[in-house]
Automatic annotation (TrEMBL):
The lineage of its organism: Bacteria, Pseudomonadati, Bacteroidota, Flavobacteriia, Flavobacteriales. NAD(+) binds at residues 134, 198, 203, 220, 239-240, 267-270, 298-301. This is Alanine dehydrogenase. The keyword Ligase does not apply. The active site is at 96 (proton donor/acceptor), 270 (proton donor/acceptor). It catalyses: L-alanine + NAD(+) + H2O = pyruvate + NH4(+) + NADH + H(+). It comes from the Bacteria. Keywords: NAD, Nucleotide-binding, Oxidoreductase. The gene is ald.
Length: 374
């Protein structure tokens, strides 16, 4: 198969879809890989490394899309890329369709085959291709939150871990999944007073067993959330419903119950955010203030640490990319149930229920496609 790796063009997106090591594995399986010139530079990978791994370098993004049968990316295509996507072209990347009707309709119109990293789902309901980026974002949420708690950045002026004789900051984490667990670990390690809220008693029991003494767990509901936001200094939103829009757990009216300078970090922004006042921001302009509450909602947080993120992402996506390239998407998805759940849009048809529900679009049965093996 002919595989293309374009340079990411989303604002301050420094990751790249495949490392040189990943290219070498794809080439070893008999595939041809075209990488756009300087695509890996911001992640620390020179063109010469890709050439040494067996890739061919193309100078423009247009040539990559025109040449490739399969595109491997990091982030969803943005408007300048829509017209470059060909009918039947296989796209393997993060899409987060449910948060963008414009993107969804553009991919429907393209006639392409869209396999979304974030909806590949194992039998235990874990999301293997989302997990590493959730780990990065969860940890980064505390780094960024701690920074924006500083007074010059309009925060409350609190050191996350406090000092002897002065109480540490209070951190509220909404969601006890991968993001929430990593955020709580980081905040606890920095000495904060941490509370995790979740609706799964089983998950809360696990977290209570493994977390240090400065992390408390509570069952999540509106009453509990309203109680904690009055005294929390940093609130991290990490709630995820696979492939669907995130629930709005903090509403606009709740901001008035928070202290001035409270910081909200919404890691669920890719799925629409779990705060009503969330709007996507960029690393270039990451925060905004509503009712004296600082909002940080960068839609590609791991892009700020591209070397770590690209390495972690390729580690998990490469085995699936090899299956797609070796077998073609129909056979690969027919034989791999988790990968089949990654199919979101096929030749103009929506095949993932949460996307159909989000925009009231007709839903086609994915099995009608994967059972027709070439």
């Amino acid at each position: 198969m002919i595989i293309g790796v374009p340079k990411e063009i989303k604002n301050n997106e420094n990751r790249v879809g495949v490392t040189p090591a990943g290219v070498m594995e794809l080439v070893r399986h008999g595939h041809t890989v075209f990488v756009q010139q300087s695509a890996g530079l911001q992640s620390g990978f020179e063109d010469d490394e890709y050439i040494g791994a067996g890739a061919k370098i193309l100078p423009t993004i247009e040539e990559v899309y025109q040449t490739a049968e399969m595109i491997i990316k990091v982030k969803e295509p943005i408007a300048p890329e829509y017209s470059l996507i060909k009918k039947d072209q296989l796209l393997f990347t993060y899409f987060h369709f449910a948060s963008s009707e414009v993107l969804t309709r553009a991919m429907i119109d393209s006639g392409s085959v869209c396999v979304s990293y974030e909806t590949v789902e194992d039998p235990d309901r874990s999301l293997p291709l989302l997990t590493p980026m959730s780990e990065v974002a969860g940890r980064m949420s505390i780094q960024q939150g701690a920074k924006y708690l500083e007074k010059p950045l309009k925060g409350r002026g609190i050191l996350l871990g406090g000092v002897p004789g002065v109480a540490p900051a209070k951190v509220l984490v909404l969601g006890g999944g991968v993001v929430g667990t990593q955020a709580a670990k980081m905040a606890a390690g920095m000495g904060a007073d941490v509370t995790i809220l979740d609706i799964s008693p089983k998950r809360l029991k696990y977290l209570d067993d493994v977390m240090p003494a400065n992390v408390n767990t509570e069952y999540s509901n509106e009453y509990t959330i309203r109680k904690h936001i009055k005294t929390s200094d940093l609130i991290v939103g990490g709630v995820l419903i696979p492939g669907a829009k995130a629930p709005k757990l903090i509403t606009r009216d709740m901001l008035k119950e928070m202290r001035p300078g409270t910081v909200l970090v919404d890691v669920a922004v890719d799925q629409g955010g779990c705060f009503e006042t969330t709007k996507p921001t960029t690393h270039q302009d990451p925060v905004y203030i509503i009712d004296d509450v600082v909002h940080y909602s960068v839609a590609n947080m791991p892009g700020a640490v591209p070397y770590t993120s690209t390495m972690a992402l390729t580690n998990v996506t490469l085995p699936y990319a090899i299956q797609l390239a070796n077998k073609g998407w129909k056979k690969a998805c027919a034989e791999n149930e988790p990968l089949k759940k990654g199919l979101n849009v096929i030749n103009g048809d929506v095949v993932y229920p949460a996307i159909s529900e989000a925009f009231d679009l007709p839903l086609k049965d994915v099995n009608a496609y994967t059972s027709k093996l070439d």
